Amino acid sequence: MIHIQDWVHRISESNGLRFLKPPLMLLVLAGLMLVYNFRGFKNMANAEAMDAAQVARNLAEHKGFSTLFVRPFSLYLVQRANAEKLGPAPVGDVSDRAQIRGLHPDLANAPLYPVLLAGLMKVAPHDYRIRAGKSIWNRGGEFWVYPPDFFISLLNQLIFAATVLLLFLLARKLFDSAVAWTSTVLFLGTDLFWRFSVSGLSTMLVMLVFVLLAWCLVGFDQAIRGGAPFRRSLLFAALCGLVLGVGGLTRYSFLFLLLPVLFFVAVFAGPRRAIYCLVVLAVCATTIAPWLARNYQVSHTLFGTAGYAAIETTPQFTEFRLERSLKPVLTRWDGYQVWFKTANNARLVLQDDLPKLGGNWVIGFFFAGFMVLFKDPARNRLRWFLLACFPVLVAAQAMGKTQLSEASPVINSENLLILLMPLIIMFGVAIFYVLLEQMDLPHPGIRGILVGAFCLVTCLPMVLTFFSARTMAVAYPPYYPPTIQGISNWMHEDELMMSDIPWAVAWYGKRQCIWTTLNTQEDFFAVYDYLKPVRALYLTPETMDSKFLSQWVRASEHSWGSFILETVNKQQIPANFPLRSAPTGFLPEQFFLTDRERWKK
Q1: Is residue 31 domain-resident?
Q2: What mean pLDDT value characterizes the chain?
């Protein structure tokens, strides 16, 4: 009978541990996912995540790139494009030039992430209805977890796992197994990445694309330095362009990385640098051109509403004013305002965001490591590429910052610097080991203790997550899916609602919903009378709990705040407002109005 010690010895001698490591790693990862989802899962609390999810559902249901979340600014762009194509509308024109009476085209999302979510919804169809009573998704018979939110998070965690694998392989290729394993542990042990994974945002996918881009640049550099055939280095240049295009189709701001990629190619590609740069540009442009052409056909803009992010939160378009505008005066803004916005936000990014990047202090090792020169040129060149990404992404993040970053300061799609963290962790760990090698340790075992302490301290926020109170899965206020789905079920599928959280009504309620207009008179009736009648108004703590003085008292005469004040104080709806029926039980936290007593049906 073979003893256990002999069995272990034979495995070690036959290099069998090499085959045990991958399944062991998968087991650890699955355990982390299970424990984190039990302790830290939260239903979607981000407008962008819900917006992408409802677009994906429309795709899965063969409705094309359409949206139930209607931005007034999107109506303006579609109307303007149709006016330029068809000419001014004749008197009495009843055509749907705003494309709101049917399916409204989506002009806010890059296409790749919704396509991926649509694939998930086709492969694993969801039941979008919320059911009461005993269920694995409920807690004590009360609503707790919305299953589609959970499955979208699970998909993002699988993408996270793929990024972990790619980072491990890249670190082992450039450094050694010690750096690879330690980088993997720190990457897996960073709480911020897990929070992004359950947010429903596309950040995990964009991060995976960025690590793929690093792989392509390393391959390109090795082909150039190794004297590989021209067609091989040309292939890697084309792959760089393809990955850039794929990243741009996942998140438009990823296209800013074209600048550091071209810098890398131009500096390190040798005498044929011009050819390689043209190949990168051509492949990237070819990849994104069909989608940009679609956007231009629909709205006469290349990036839809996302292309105007630079002028959002400027003095002319504070908060969400631009996206809620039916007739914005786009000629009012000037380049100086965009410059001032970018400069001020860049100062805040460098002062507040950069030191806390990634939620751990490995970034300190990364920057300190620039005083250490690696022997391998590939390491140094990739590190210079990473450094070149910083000013580009800081500028892009500062210029593209909108009110979304104020609503969710860290977990948002405008947090671009977070994409650099996988490589920052890898280089930071490499510098840690360089410094560790220079220490005169009295005993070899102390080295393992120091590495363990380094990993433990860095991953401590994640560790404490497992020992803290369980996260409240319901993201209220303002999102309570049973209420949103309940009032939406009172409406017909072809009817239009208006809300201060239209993305949630579109996702949880599956009803067409327009964002609350800037006022309750001119803009509201411009939609109601000339575009499509609004059959219900749903306001949440997003409006009901807003700032009393600045957003209610000092707001415009016909603001939604003054509308609520007049309705609550006088207990009477303004005379000319067409929606006059309100069920009981909503005030004071929420407010619901409709055209008739639908709840009695």
Answers
A1: no
A2: 90
